[in-house]
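thought: user wants a sequence for this fold. calling inverse folding tool.
action: design(structure=
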């Protein structure tokens, strides 16, 4: 009789342990998938910037969208997984005009968004939006930087090219 009870207790403990382990394993696999997907979005954003396909209006739309989402973030009923500094950084950065935002700031915003979405057990969708917006704005800024360098190069090339008179 005692042996049957201990066997039942062992089975019950085993089942409880397995139930607790499965979500952790699922979370790890899910996080890997999300990481790969997020990296692919970054590649697509960078590729579209190389082609010059990201317009200022699109980047401005994303900037305003992030400002709106994270300005009400503190009133959300769920516990806030962001630090006070991270939230202030997001609000400050995305409140600036697009021309004043730097690529390094978008790198940091991307990392915050990625962490918020992938590492948070709840997979906060605002983290995904932040990461993708930061990737596209960063790509736009790179595109703009490349265009300005090209224009500067063409301008100096025109100045150094000697003018020849037609014969």
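)
observation: tool returned 167 residues.
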């Amino acid at each position: 009789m005692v042996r049957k009870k201990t066997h039942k207790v062992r089975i019950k403990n085993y089942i409880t342990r397995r139930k607790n382990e499965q979500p952790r394993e699922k979370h790890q696999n899910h996080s890997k998938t999300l990481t790969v997907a997020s990296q692919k979005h970054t590649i697509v954003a960078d590729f579209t910037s190389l082609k010059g396909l990201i317009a200022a209006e699109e980047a401005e739309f994303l900037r305003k969208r992030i400002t709106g989402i994270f300005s009400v973030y503190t009133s959300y009923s769920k516990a806030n997984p962001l630090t006070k500094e991270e939230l202030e950084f997001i609000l400050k950065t995305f409140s600036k005009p697009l021309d004043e935002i730097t690529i390094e700031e978008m790198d940091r915003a991307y990392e915050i968004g990625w962490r918020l979405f992938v590492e948070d057990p709840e997979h906060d969708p605002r983290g995904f939006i932040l990461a993708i917006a930061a990737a596209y704005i960063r790509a736009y800024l790179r595109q703009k930087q490349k265009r300005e360098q090209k224009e500067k190069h063409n301008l100096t090339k025109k100045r150094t090219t000697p003018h020849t008179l037609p014969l």
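thought: summarizing for user.
answer: Here is the designed sequence. Helices lie at 2-50, 56-71, 84-95, 103-119, 125-160.
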